[in-house]
Specification:
The chain is built from seven helices and no strands. With 156 residues, it is mainly α. It folds into two domains: 72 residues, Arc Repressor Mutant, subunit A; 40 residues. α1 packs across α5, α2 crosses α3 and α5 runs antiparallel to α6. The longest helix is centred in the last third of the chain and has 24 residues. It starts with 29 loop residues before the first helix and ends in an 11-residue tail after the last helix.
Length: 156
């Protein structure tokens, strides 16, 4: 069994007592980087990802800036990495990986169809009008009320 005496309950290294003043500067580690990327793939915010690795949000932005920059596409990258691994295992002859790969691809296709059907029948949403635009519309309606009437139609 590995010696984990330098780790706390959550697997983070215990900081030894120092003679210097202040808290030691946080250093980038691959393990924490992976935790941050997984947090973003799950949809957590920067603040929540910072809590996961035990730092403040500004420290996370400072030390893990490249991970924060890739926050929006983390979910998609994670899915594609997983599909790539399944594909590699399926090509190696793993039947269970082939079945799981087909399941995942069917699930993604179904999700795409659901997204396309969800928006069917509804046109693009009209932009909300501001005060000035609403006042101009009201003025047009008022002008319609006071325009002169048409004369009577001639029968002959």
């Amino acid at each position: 069994m590995a010696d984990n005496s330098g780790l706390d309950l959550f697997g983070d290294p215990i900081q030894p007592d120092r003679e210097a003043r202040g808290r030691p500067e946080h250093r980038w580690t691959l393990q924490n980087s992976n935790k941050v990327l997984l947090a973003f793939a799950r949809g957590l915010s920067v603040k929540e990802a910072a809590i996961v690795i035990g730092v403040s949000a500004p420290t996370l932005r400072k030390v893990y800036f490249s991970e924060v920059r890739r926050q929006k596409d983390a979910r998609l990258r994670m899915e594609m990495t997983q599909l790539s691994r399944l594909n590699d295992a399926a090509q190696a002859g793993n039947v269970a990986a082939e079945k799981e790969l087909l399941k995942q691809l069917d699930k993604a296709a179904l999700k795409d169809v659901a997204n396309s059907v969800r928006d069917r029948g509804r046109g693009p949403k009209a932009p909300a009008l501001g005060k000035k635009e609403l006042a101009q519309e009201a003025a047009k309606e008022a002008a319609q009320k006071f325009k002169p009437r048409q004369g009577p139609r001639l029968l002959n």
